[in-house]
What we know:
mainly beta, 4-stranded antiparallel β-sheet, 11 strands
Amino acid sequence: QVQLVESGGGLVQPGGSLRLSCAASGSINNIYAMGWYRQAPGKQRELVAVITSDGSINYSDSVKGRFTISTDDAKNTVYLQMNSLKPEDTAVYYCNLEIQRLAVIEFWGQGTQVTVSS
C-alpha cells in the first residue's frame, strides 16, 4: 500500500509564491519517478514537473524558470517551489509517484488546490 499526502496549496496573489509538498509512505522501494501534475477546470490533467531516480528533471514549458521540483530522499518527499505565479497557474495540483515493480505502477495524491487571484 502506498500513500501520498500533499500539502501547501492555497490562495496567492499574482506574482506570489507557494511551496507544495508530497510525502510518500508505504511500500515505496524502487521509486522510478516523482512529479507534479495539475488540472484546471474544464481542462485535461497536464504534467507540471517530474524528477526521475537518476536525477533527470523535466518541466512543462509554461512553468520553466518559475517552478522548481526537488526531493528529499530521506523523507520520501517531493516539493514544488512555485514562484512568479500567474492566474493561469490556478488548478488542482496532484502528486504522482511511479514505482518500478514488474511494470511501472503509478500512484496519485488526493490533490491540493492552488488559486492565483487578486
